[in-house]
Give the backbone structure.
Amino acid sequence: MRLSTRGRYGLAAMIYLGKKYGDSPVSLNEISKYTGLSNNYLEQLIRELKKEKLVISVRGVQGGYLLNKPPQDISVAEILECLEEFFGTTECSAVPGFCSRENKCPSRVIWTEMYDKMIESVKNISLKDLIDKE
């Protein structure tokens, strides 16, 4: 499995928001300084994170973005599933019925096992776990 820049950079932005959890809203400029990403790219990522209610926005001069729940209640899986167009080892391992050879494919078993273990792993890692490791 390979993560796109959306997943990697979105996770970096979420880590920064997690570090600021409980503080005042964080501006795109501040997130940009931490991640090195442009405001335009961050806006795209934040828009997706807002749709999934992982992030909320606060309007006004002192506005910005906040996590919608504590970092320990947000899994890496939630973030990556929100941002990645496809999150898995192969399409057939993640999407039942995707392939017409699904029931005859000898290698599908290994792809499905890898997918299940990967998902289990990232579901058990919280945003707080990542922050604590920094």
Observations:
- The chain is about 55% helix and 5% strand.
- The chain has a mean pLDDT of 90.
